[in-house]
Amino acid sequence: MADYAITPPPVVTLPISGSETLFPVRRVYCIGRNYAAHAIEMGHDPNREPPFFFQKNANNLITDGTFPYPPKTSDVHHEIEMVVALKSGGVNIPVDQALDHVWGYAVGLDMTRRDLQSQAKDMGRPWETGKSFEFSAPCSALRPVSDVGHPDAGLVQLKVNGVAKQTGDLNQLIWKVPEMISYLSEYFELAPGDIIMTGTPAGVASVVKGDVMECHVAGVGDLTVTVV
C-alpha cells in the first residue's frame, strides 16, 4: 500500500441518471466559440477556423444545483453547453471512430468571470482566472449512450428566472462532437474519464445572487442551478 506524504485528494465524479454508480472524471476540455452567433457576439469571425480548447479542473465540477458567486469579479456569465463523457481514448482518433469512445452526455454550464477573462485576453495571458475557478462547471447527471444515442440536433436553451437568454440548436455546432474528439486527440492523449464541453450558443450574460438558471439540451436532459 502506498505511503502518501499527504492525504490524497478525492476522486472527482459525476452522477449517472437512474444509477448509484458514479463516473470518475480525469480532465475537462472546453472548446471555445463553437457556435457562429456566439463567435460574433464575442467579436470574432464566425467562419470555420481551426478549433481551440482550454481546460477547467475536474474539481470545478459541481452537481448540487447551486453556483456560489465567486470572488474578485462583478461580471459572471452563464454559458450552457452539452457535455460529452469518454469511456476510452487514445491519440490520432479518426473522425469516423470518435463516437465509439463516448460513454454518455450531460448538460453543463461553463461559468465565466468575464471581466477577468477580458483582462487576460487584453494582456495576452491565460484564461484560468476567468474560467477555471471553484464551482465554475455546474453539471447534470450523465446519461449513457445506450439511453440517448448521440444527440446531434435539437434545442439548446438557457433561461434565467424564466426568461430565455440563450437559444440554439445542436446542429449549429461549428465543430461536431466526432471532429472535436479527433482534433483533441491530435494534441492530447485522451483517456477514460475525460469530459468535453462542446461550446455555447449566443446570449451569454451576467447573473447575480438569487438568479435561477434553467438549462435544457434536447435529447440529453435538464439542469437547474441557483446562484448563491
Automatic annotation (TrEMBL):
<dbReference type="InterPro" id="IPR036663">
    <property type="entry name" value="Fumarylacetoacetase_C_sf"/>
</dbReference>
<dbReference type="GO" id="GO:0016787">
    <property type="term" value="F:hydrolase activity"/>
</dbReference>
<dbReference type="Pfam" id="PF01557">
    <property type="entry name" value="FAA_hydrolase"/>
</dbReference>
<feature type="domain" description="Fumarylacetoacetase-like C-terminal">
    <location>
        <begin position="28"/>
        <end position="228"/>
    </location>
</feature>
<keyword id="KW-0479">Metal-binding</keyword>
<keyword id="KW-0378">Hydrolase</keyword>
<dbReference type="InterPro" id="IPR011234">
    <property type="entry name" value="Fumarylacetoacetase-like_C"/>
</dbReference>
<protein>
    <submittedName>
        <fullName>Fumarylacetoacetate hydrolase family protein</fullName>
    </submittedName>
</protein>
